[in-house]
Amino acid sequence: MDAFSRRTLLKGLSAAAVAGAAGSALGCSAKTTTGTSGRIGAEILPTYAQAGSVEPALKSASPLGMSGYFEYPPNPVASVSKPPLSGGQISALTYTFDPVAPGKSDNPLWQEVDKRLGGKLDITYAPAADYAQRFATTVAGGDLPDLVSIYGSVQQLPALLKAKFTDLTEYLSGDAVKDYPNLAGLSTDSWRKTVYGNALWGVPIARVPIPSVAWIRADLIAGTGLPAQPKNIGEFKALLKGLTNERKSRWACGDPGSTLTMIAASMGIPGSWREDGGKFTSNIELEEYEKALADTRELADAGVFHPDGLVASNNQRNDWFTNGTTPIVFGGYAGWSKYEMWGAEVPGFKLGSLPMFGYDAASKPVHPRGSAAQAFTAVTQAEPDRVREVLRVLDWLAAPFGSSEYLLRNFGIEGQTFTFEGKDPILNSRGQNLRLVPFGYVSGPTLAIYDPGRRDVAQARFDYQEAALPILAPDPTQGLYSETDAAKGLQLGKDLTDTRNGILAGRAPVSSWKAAVTKWRNGGGDKIRAEFEQAFSEAGPK
């Protein structure tokens, strides 16, 4: 397959990993396709219909939000009336963020999934960080499984989809999705991730678009007199400086880059691009962004960041937070329960979060925006009957909270992998391992807020979501594709990150940022802008 060589695919996918990291720190990852613009694919998107019938204890006011539950409904029933397969096998290639699960021969949970599917679901997967290599090798080899995860940025993606995968528009567009009622329950915005050339090319892995939270050790802040819920930049700086005591080996935070993102958001700076009359401006070009960089440099000079903060891994920063070395950490919203679990053995540990604040009284803050779809699953070209069979499997995997399928995929088999404590299924150690099969990265429902036995955690997660969703930063690049971004995002992101880190480390003045932006523009940024503007124009009016 000359048009889609392994080298070309690897370059594009590697760019996703590095530029994505740069985007989280710099807020300039152009490829993020999220938002509520309503332009992309509006006429072909599947008709939304809530999946399942379980009434939530907490119902989001936003169509992007997750419902919250305090207990698992008793006597769950199947959302799919009959097995989607009549024997046979479905193969899939995907990624995972978890350790490797026991193989099917040693995994009764996986065996039970096969039994209820009515056939075999064989999943090959790789760690998310290594998925680019596995994807490129598989596609270049030409022998594709039935289902393939499209995760990260891929060069020549529209052409690749047309050459190797199935246009799902006739199967899923509009009311056609009613044949797959669990898929119809995925958020409308998540489907935009799958639209290229006015066609649907997959099933989204839907997510609430809140990427991260500024976590605080509320127990370490209590009684200090510091502003635990800062209302402006002055109080935020006072909090960070007040928490820092280098003689006691304590620094406020371990992540200067995410602190920069939070300060930029306090000014209302978008996470990627700003659109006005069809013209795009990157956030890094704004004067306000340089001001946010200067404020972060001031905090760095005051010593509020861990000395190794710029080079530390996320695992190191999480360890610093748990042991109290840094009372503030930026982590994924989806990982809320993990922070509670890590702190369970720490005496007095109390998890809190910092809400978004306005830079000053005149500022309208935004919350950094993530993607409404983490990835999407494409269906390899096949005869219509085979495509429908594969879609039925994806629909089964997307069974919502409260169903028997959801209980099986997430908790396993009662008595073997979990037991009920009241109405809550509580996993045992065996279940924690067996359930790591990445079914949810092949297909899954809109996520739910549910923390067995911890109503307080579920309520806190829900309250944060409801405060964040109304102020999510806009992203006009939703559903738009830039070949230059896919091809050059790696190097452009790295150059910006290097310059930013040099400024925050005190090796370069804040004024050097302007030269970095000029280099970005000349090196491909202006071309990315032009490609997005053209794609935005071609998408038509709202």
Strand content: 5-15%
CATH architecture assignment name of the largest domain: 3-Layer(aba) Sandwich
Going across the biggest sheet, name each strand in turn: 3-2-4-13-7
For the sheet with most strands, the description reads:
5 strands, mixed
Measured as a percent range, the helix fraction is: 25-40%
> What's the level 1 CATH class of the largest domain?
Alpha Beta
**What's the Cα radius of gyration?**
23 Å
InterPro entries: SBP (IPR006059), TAT_signal (IPR006311)
Keywords: Signal
Protein name: Putative aldouronate transport system substrate-binding protein
Signal peptide: 1-30
Task: Supply database-style keywords.
542 residues, alpha+beta, D-Maltodextrin-Binding Protein, domain 2, 2 domains, five-stranded mixed beta sheet, three-stranded antiparallel beta sheet, globular, disordered N terminus
Structural write-up:
It comes from Kribbella amoyensis. This is Putative aldouronate transport system substrate-binding protein. Residues 1-30 form the signal peptide. Keywords: Signal. It is a single chain. With 542 residues, the protein is an alpha+beta fold. The protein folds into two domains: 46-209 and 372-468, Periplasmic binding protein-like II (D-Maltodextrin-Binding Protein, domain 2, 3-Layer(aba) Sandwich), CATH 3.40.190; 214-368, D-Maltodextrin-Binding Protein, domain 2 (3-Layer(aba) Sandwich), CATH 3.40.190.10. Helix content is 39%, strand content 13%. It contains 19 helices and 16 strands. The strands form six sheets. It has a five-stranded mixed β-sheet. The model is unreliable at 1-37 (pLDDT under 50).
